[in-house]
Amino acid sequence: xxxxxxxxxxxxxxxxxxxxxxxxxxxxxxxxxxxxxxxxxxxxxxxxxxxxxxxxxxxxxxxxxxxxxxxxxxxxxxxxxxxxxxxxxxxxxxxxxxxxxxxx
Amino acid sequence: xxxxxxxxxxxxxxxxxxxxxxxxxxxxxxxxxxxxxxxxxxxxxxxxxxxxxxxxxxxxxxxxxxxxxxxxxxxxxxxxxxxxxxxxxxxxxxxxxxxxxxxxxxxxxxxxxxxxxxxxxxxxxxxxxxxxxxxxxxxxxx
Lengths: 104, 142
Known about the structure:
The structure holds 2 protein chains of 2 kinds.
Chain A: H1 3-29, H2 41-68, H3 72-101
Helix pairs in contact in A: 1-2, 2-3
Chain B: H1 21-54, H2 62-90, H3 113-140
Helix pairs in contact in B: 1-2, 2-3
């Protein structure tokens, strides 16, 4: 994947986080808006939130680490490690989203 | 190793003297990002391992735990608004048009709307910071 594609995805996921993250914070922290959690759209938006926030986090960390440790070989190692960590947390998070929201 | 000569590593983040305010925003964006990542991964593990089986929400205990969440809120607000500014700057929406370099060499790409956006981000951040501190004082029971 080209570097510019990675960064375009970084900005797209950033925008997605702006929407789904705001939904997450409002639905969980404001008692008036707790009803959002009972809608069908909420678990779906949280799935999107999980994927977007993990991509954004791992790519952000990759950008920092690649700048601190330049070179193509270290870049590849950093990419592989962060991709694996991201996928592990995504599978883990998705499993528990299904555990929490699957029972209704 | 010639290419390591100019390498400052993470210490380069601390070099702010002589740089524009954008450098400060860049460093703050990175530090806040790393802070949010640490919270994010801990939060996923926390919700998955504690909330999902027991349906009881675990929160960091004590005043330090609450203070961490308060600081996290401030960090997230900053990261969000600065991130929107960075997207706009990246695709050229707030960057001024390039100009022929004539004396006194004012950079239109750094001044003008781009700099205004920096001040706007800082202003919004300070306003929300104020309200958030008000909420936090209630939260902390001070």
